[in-house]
UniProtKB/TrEMBL annotation:
GO terms for molecular function: isocitrate dehydrogenase (NAD+) activity; magnesium ion binding; NAD binding. SUPFAM superfamilies: Isocitrate/Isopropylmalate dehydrogenase-like. Transmembrane segments: none annotated. Residues 2-326 form the Isopropylmalate dehydrogenase-like domain. One of its GO terms (biological process) is isocitrate metabolic process. The keyword Oxidoreductase applies. It comes from Fundicoccus ignavus. Keywords: Oxidoreductase. This is NAD-dependent isocitrate dehydrogenase. InterPro entries: IsoCit/isopropylmalate_DH_CS, IsoPropMal-DH-like_dom. The lineage of its organism: Bacteria, Bacillati, Bacillota, Bacilli, Lactobacillales. Belongs to the isocitrate and isopropylmalate dehydrogenases family. It comes from the Bacteria.
Amino acid sequence: MRVTMIPGDGIGREIAQAMMQVVDASGAKIEWEIVHAGETVLQETGELVPQAVYDSLERNQIAIKGPITTPIGQGYRSVNVALRKKYDLYANVRPIRSVGQTPSLFEGLDLVLFRENTEDLYAGLEKKISDDEMHSIKVITRSASERIVKQAFDFAVSHQRRRVTVVTKANIMKLTDGLFLEVAREVAKAYPTIEFTEILVDNMAMQLVINPQQFDVIVTENLYGDILSDLMAGLVGGLGIIPGANLGRNMAIFEAVHGSAPDIAGKDLANPTALILSACLMLEHLNESEAASRIRQALDQVLSHPDNFTRDLGGHIGTTAFTNLILAAMQ
């Protein structure tokens, strides 16, 4: 299977190389088509996302990418947001799972967040009323709400999950969030074996830091999902170990959700775990589940020893040494 690989900026190229080494060693049959986008490419070519990237994506229909820097204050739109909208990647999926013995507030956590990826306030519909008043328009549609909620329930069924929780602020935003909640209630009726619960987003934030084990699969709107996924990452050790998937009907793009960390780029300090786990999601999507399981087991083994932690986890191991430990554990 040919996969588009977009290394990205900053630490992207280092962690991309580490990820490809690990995937190649897993036994998965992947052919990498490497194309470049981001701030570095912009400086070289004048294009943030060259046409070659779009051509590769449309040819392969599946991709994995490192962190991409969007220049600030120059009128450029986030590459991540642009790709999600261009290819209707409506489902952002972020598993929040304890890995090894990484520093975390809770042990054995295993949650999955489904975030609607195309509308809400992130649709970017803003209007200037005057120099002193700006409006941002929140858009929630029945069709987009229905497909993300169905995706969450289908996942729960296929992965033997027990509960789906919908997160809104429907007590205040009675029309927009009210519609999302109404749709979730209707969809839930078709899945009688899955427990359905609903919660307001402010209470959800509190409950996640008090007792996250009460949740299982979580589905929510775009803005809430963005905020809650970072909060949840903090429960298990940070963004350095959280993978992500952006799924549409005809395309899937997998990515580490952390930034490009230019301050440590090229210093062999970056933690490649998030991108490696994103590759595991990709492998499962490609029916290479055995290879994904092999990688996850190696990661759990390596990260069960604090001496193997990278700097972001409180250790001293560099990117290359960490990658070599994973390769050795896989053997």
